[in-house]
Write a structure and sequence with these properties.
It is a single chain. A five-stranded mixed β-sheet has the order 1-2-3-4-5, with helices on both faces. The protein is an alpha+beta fold. The protein is globular, with a radius of gyration of 14 Å. The longest helix is centred in the first third of the chain and has 19 residues. The protein contains three helices and five strands; from the N terminus they run ααβββαββ. The model has no long low-confidence stretch (mean pLDDT 90). 30% of the residues lie in helices and 19% in strands. The protein has a single domain, classed as Alpha-Beta Complex (tt1808, chain A), CATH 3.90.1570.
């Protein structure tokens, strides 16, 4: 992992950062917490009228018995270093969406792969 963090190629674009840095870290979370799955770039539409629609980079949620995603308690958004703050708009929207589906506590992470910020709603 240290090699990837020190490699400029891992940060050349959003896809490289997601695949080389963020996803491997989230895979470690998935291994530690067997009840949770990492859902990559899946549509999460809750309420179109309220603007609670989108496709976040990653959602961390249990899988239902029907192999569908349950309500996600954690949303992870990849942000470019020069637009880090812009990553919080979709992250907060996903937290509100999860909250509207009954999650009492929701978490979000916005990351460049090197910098990670966490929030709780």
């Amino acid at each position: 992992m240290t090699e990837k963090l020190n490699s400029t190629i891992s940060f050349i674009n959003e896809v490289a950062t997601c695949e080389d840095i963020i996803k491997p870290i989230l895979n470690l979370v998935e291994k530690k917490y067997e009840a949770l799955q990492v859902w990559s770039h899946v549509t999460y539409n809750v309420d179109k009228e309220k603007g609670l629609v989108g496709e976040p980079d990653y959602l961390i949620a249990p899988m239902t018995a029907q192999a569908l995603m349950s309500t996600p308690p954690i949303c992870v958004i990849e942000a470019s270093p020069d637009k880090f703050d812009e990553g919080w708009a979709p992250a907060l929207a996903e937290m509100i969406a999860a909250g509207s589906q009954g999650m009492e506590i929701c978490y979000s992470v916005v990351t460049t792969g090197k910098a990670w910020e966490f929030a709780k709603l």
